[in-house]
Request: fold
Amino acid sequence: MLLVLLGIVIALLVVAGGVTVLHKTSNTAFCVSCHSMERPLAEYQGSVHYQNHAGIRASCANCHIPSQPVDYLLTKIAAVKDVYGEVTGTIDTEEKYNAKKLAMAESVWKTMKASDSATCRSCHSFEAMDILAQQPDARKAHPVAIRSGETCIDCHRGVAHILPDMRASNASGASQLIAAAGVSVDNGILYSVQTQPFALQPVAEAPAGTLFPAAPLTILRRDQGKVEARLSGWQQQDVPTLIYAAPGKRIISAVIEEDTSSHINILASQTDAQTGTVWQQVSLDIWLPPGALIDDQQKIWQYASGLMSANCTGCHGLTPSNHFTANQWIGVMKGMAARTSLDKEQLRVLTLYVQNHASDMPTPDMLPSKGTEDEK
Reply:
């Protein structure tokens, strides 16, 4: 009997000791006690999660350690790798920290995405939000997020730490998109995955113009390793060097060389009632290599959406694409570009994405389906 009681006491002491250790190693003071945590600590201290008008401070554990028992224990066990990293000096210098920052951030984002941002939701929940009392941007974005089933980390990646240099991640996404291109389709609609020159003949010495990403092309035929396709769009009267995706919208589909304009077919015209500008519906048959064409435009938009989430959430939440008109987005993107890691091509893809999903563009259910007369 005495041995049983002794065993119970020892078991209680072990459990109590284990709980105490787990609790003590979860507080912010312990988390930032390591030398390598100086840099993330400084970022955290400059964020709204550290200091705000409400006087509510989120600790390291609030964001990084889930409260569910199993997930909690798994997270604590996985933290052994952090101890190893501290001992071996994995991020003990600014150079090492910056080199590893993207991988560390993507690991956290992946975990939060998989858990439906469980740690965020321990403090924030859609059900408890007074959306009408929020700032205009949040008031517009949160109902969209609720309807589409988005999770916190989809729109809020830079809320506690400065975003890492996203250039490597951006380039990886572009490479994956290009790798998915080169679809062998003899008819139907294909889309350009990148900015690329085109010609008016299968073999040509000089380009006739430049095709922009996501531009839809109706495939006509293949010859000599090239694809002939019909580019349809709109031109502003007396501006023959640009083809736009829609009348009155500065969504560029292609830039045309001056001597190419004589090959453009004018199909119809309409006058903008507000500005008096005449817009001409046009088409142009072009030749280009098939390697940078894809049969699913949504793959381009998914890539662009990823660019937006990864590069545009360091200073604010994700801005819904329908927050601005197609033409307004041009100035917004130019103004924000310098604050991101986007190169010229990535910025162009992202701009086309938000323009095509802007407030004055038709929603997907308003667009004609493939094979209708509107697309021919």
Q: What stands out?
A: The CA atoms of residues 3 and 83 lie 37 Å apart. The chain has a mean pLDDT of 86. The longest strand covers residues 226-236. The two ends are 90 Å apart (CA to CA).
